[in-house]
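Shipment paperwork, digital attachment
Item: protein structure file
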Amino acid sequence: MSFAAYKMMHCPTGIDNCAAGFLTHSRAEFVPLQPDDLDAEWPSRPHPHRAPLPNLVVTAANVLELYIVRIQDDQPPKPVDSRRGTLLDGIAGASLELVCHYRLHGNVETMAVLSIGGGDASRKRDSIILTFADAKISVLEYDDSIHGLRTSSLHCFEGPEWLHLKRGREQFARGPVVKVDPQGRCGGVLIYDLQMIILKATQAGSGLVGEEDALGFSGAVAARIESSYMINLRDLDMRHVKDFTFVHGYIEPVMVILHERELTWAGRVSWKHHTCMISALSISTTLKQHPLIWSAVNLPHDAYKLLAVPSPIGGVLVIGANTIHYHSQSASCALALNSYAVSLDSSQDIPRSSFNVELDAANATWLLSDVALLSTKTGELLLLTLVYDGRVVQRLDLSKSKASVLSSGVTTIGNSLFFLASRLGDSMLVQFSSGSGVSMLSSNLKEEVGDIEADTPSKRLRRSPSDGLQDMVSGEELSLYGSAPNRTESTQKSFSFAVRDSLVNVGPLKDFSYGLRINADANATGIAKQSNYELVCCSGHGKNGSLCVLRQSIRPEVITEVELPGCKGIWTVYHKSTRSHNADSSKLADDDDEYHAYLIISLEARTMVLETADLLSEVTESVDYYVQGKTLAAGNLFGRRRVIQVYERGARILDGSFMTQDVSFGASNSESGSAGSASESAIALSVSIADPFVLLRMSDGSIRLLIGDPSTCTISVTSPASFESSKGSVSSCTLYHDKGPEPWLRKTSTDAWLSTGVGEAIDGTDGAAQDHGDIYCVVCYDNGNLEIFDVPNFNCVFSVENFMSGKSHIVDALMKEVQLDSKKGDKDSDGVTSQGRKDNVPNMKVVELTMQRWSGQHSRPFLFGILSDGTILCYHAYLYESPDGTSKVEDSVSAGGSTGLSNTIVSRLRNLRFVRVPLEAYAREETSNGSSCQQITIFKNIGSYQGFFLSGSRPAWVMVLRERLRVHPQLCDGSIVAFTVLHNVNCNHGLIYVTSQGVLKICQLPSGSNYDSYWPVQKIPLKATPHQVTYFAEKNLYPLIVSFPVLKPLNQVISLVDQDVNHQNENQNMNSDEQNRIYPIDEFEVRIMEPEKSGGPWQTKATIPMQSSENALTVRMVTLLNTTSKENETLLAVGTAYVQGEDVAARGRILLFSLGKNTDNPQTLVSEVYSKELKGAISALASLQGHLLIASGPKIILHKWSGTELNGIAFFDAPPLHVVSLNIVKNFILIGDIHKSIYFLSWKEQGAQLSLLAKDFGSLDCFATEFLIDGSTLSLMVSDDNRNIQIFYYAPKMSESWKGQKLLSRAEFHVGAHVTKFLRLQMLSTSDRAGSAPGSDKTNRFALLFGTLDGSIGCIAPLDELTFRRLQSLQRKLVDAVPHVAGLNPRAFRQFRSNGKAHRPGPDSIVDCELLCHYEMLPLEEQLEIANQIGTTRSQILSNLSDLSLGTSFL
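Attachment content:
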């Protein structure tokens, strides 16, 4: 294995930074809401949600996501549930909807939103400032025209010319920190701990025309950075900067810096304390001057955070571990939080809060201008109220509130919501409402009121907005008046909270284990076998600790299955015998719950019809369906009053089982006079149904439209007139029904009504046309052009040239803007040359089209196209009014003289645009040119999810959640030929599919999983921190180590630590106050968990408690050879360590347990068979050829097992300090040390000796190690604390290896995340595919799946040299060919980071699939061009990438 590929399979989910700002709209753009009767209910309070809400931006490692917050207003008076807090301030719910999602080539360190001042009437928008490691700053703004983020400026202060800024230092405790002035005049970035970069924002009126008049509706100008300069804080005598912020209420921007004059630490506090101070600098960006205007000294040494108090109060809060101080130019006050808080000289007394709390590592945001919300390290929410008079703050009041998730950041969104970001649990969107009233509950309130937590999806209905996130844990009442008992009778503000939405997080992944799923299929082979497994991960921390069960592929729960060979398609249709004739009398709510009546199955040469009542029974003989040949499609027309069945030569309309009309597709109108022979050959190939129209694509490349008449429930065949002047043969077409009370596409047209024809056509049902929306026909021609027509007039309303090339954005051809033209000019010139290269893809065309808008108030349509080579193009529609649009269209129309009809000009959907969305995790399939079977099946409600199913040889579920597509493959049945939904008595909102082996399965979607994640995930809350997990295959059990804090009195804790100290002396030194103090100690236990059969919460079968102050470090299932009985035994081995301070020598225990036969009785499940105390902490265990290998402190000892005793037979005294991981292959041992890199040992049975083969001489702080096997080559993989991975190999013959003592580097790579665990899995063979070179595919090839602390999962897969060279040259091309978001360089990101340590660069033998995945997103012409430049073909590259994703489609 000289070469490998790095592939990210599950993006990071632990959110590091969050911020709110007006990015996609400005403060002045009001969101029009339907008026409702709420005003009568809430006379006192103005509506807080009437003003537009800002966007939410979150970053998780290298992922940047922009959300829009959608508010569901309450439908007028609905008394249900209101007391449970679902209805707060007239808001029934709020949810996050994704605007755009980017994977950057760099981890975001900090983020801020630069907002332009100008109050609520401002038309300007905000920008995002991101900082990246070392000293890179990117400013991004949202651009309507591309529906995405665009870089507006880049600032870089690293590289040779800026080396002097580091002042010789190599390591810095933190990356750049960015803060912005609240009025948006400038920003500040602290880099290298001492240099302050001032980013000057462009002022309104400098170079721009007057703000309001120059801007049309959407020429929105965002805040931008004009220039930057630097302040060296050393010159101002600030040496140790801890934090800084900009304060409110000054004419010039004022920056307050918290810094420490001389360093101290907790052990020296009695000599040196109160070392911090704050200095306020007035920043003049024009003069580049920064005079000091005020300062405050003698702040406690543990102050770490500044919080600027908003106007009208102003000033700054200094937050420390034990105190909170308020300082402004004129006043100051403080609040002590616990008994460790001391004043400078102990004489004066600081006012104390009514309860004790430690505030280190807190996050804060402002709910009101005088109330701050603090989130502590234990996840409690505290409210800090500033009691003020005028602008003078008199005192600070702290009160307890709910307990919630352990947060990494918190931001207020608008004036009634806040977002709690978390790396350790699920992030949450919470609504708050403040009333004022005298406080009612005193502060001895613990968590019994019900915490703010997001629920597990199994407990709640998944999408109903009203009670979707009712997450009461115990209590009923969600509102809470928490405050201290008031010393003065002031009216305290009281707050009530309601969780509105949550984003699932699986990080930090500390360890994981690979086990069988409950519904595994023992007979599966090949790729289907992969979906038998699941990944059980230890994630989260403290009360957010949980087991996450991750499965990359969906495995539906089968209700029943039948053999059904030769199936071509299946459809379910509705029929109610008693249905009334008025189409809209059946309300939508009933529609959703109506059961299906018939199941229609199309075979090769006949059609079967089944009744879907209590039993599926065949009724083929007794119905009037066409059963003599295969069916092309079936569906409902006329508001589900009739069924239409379309076959190759005709169509039937049925009322239940009776035929009411039979139509045959004879000659079309124009050729009806000519001989019938020509049209006889034309049969229907594909069908699209949108009530009351049916569109057919005929085999001669023409299309037919069946128009239904709702009053008589009959249809007539027409051939659209506009296709008579044949524009070329149609390769695929579809109907799009723009449903809903306000059809979305109408907004993109110029006039309010699209065209009057639509209304007249459907006017049969007493003018209910408005509710039915508009219908469009989307057509793609053989030459790759796409057009959208309105139906039934067939006026072209949108057209695109060369749709199939897959450009990143599509605009109406008549709307080519000037700036687009200038870019296209040079493209067209080389377009001619690339025509010659088209012969690589001779017959590419679009074989299937679908356009769909799923339900949801703000949803926008998606457009999908499948090309004949298996590529799926996916586009999302968006609305963009170009400011200079109108004149262009008319000019081009008059110049081109295209169809002189006036209404074509008017009714173009000229503001419609599409942006291309990547379909991740999708493995492409090669379509054979013969098969034209439909692949995309839309579903509206399967287990309350909506989206579409992709059938074919690589079936996948694509779910639409938060307006984003989540792709989940389905591997378990191989290729799937047909799919449809089924909702009846026995199968509630389920599905039916037919595999290519001819098995029809009726299934439901597994209910326990949450599909709104990169992989379907099931979280099992543990309420404790999980550390390590292992899998016992025979009984399907998961033993895992968990720890939880237990409060103990201080004197017990001290006696634990110093057991030999005389207790009497100790206690006399402590005064009575200190003896009563309690201190949290972590207690450990091993829990043995069993998965629940039905997919519900898991059961704890047994627990093994550890002794006090004993930490369990490792748990493993080991197979040992019993030397007395000569049999193998599988035992559970636990290694522990006693943590008793630095004065006691380290000891540990090795414990062996046998897991008994009887799983029902927990007493007999686990029995201890052996325990022994050893010197040193036992940090790693493994079984080596029937022996037990134990790493205890600095020794590695091999033991044999006699059935009752462990006896050492060999040892190795390396200088490892503390072994973090131990791996074994055959008789080779790989050891990773916490500080001394890796050791490679071998075990020889005959001489009974462990010998060192080689080691890495560098000093590397290992996190995880594993063997990488490629055929007959063995390599050693290690990850380190600088987020790198390295691959070493053992080559005693090479001269540089110092006669084999030294491991040589084979590859190195920067992952950008801390890898905590590698898992070796055999890669799937892809050699059965035709066309792969013989011998290129090795069967004994293993990939490494890894998990990280960010919640991401990736893999390292070996490659053969030919593939590697091809992909590496492609990667070099893509560095320049792809526009990278935020201006980041992928090559720089993947350089090995040594953090200043001496490091000899290793070979660059790992390709980065994060960059290679952009290749498929390039337009087709560029793909061909790049492939040609590196001397290969597009199909060759795509086949390599597809083989890689198939070979690694584990789980």
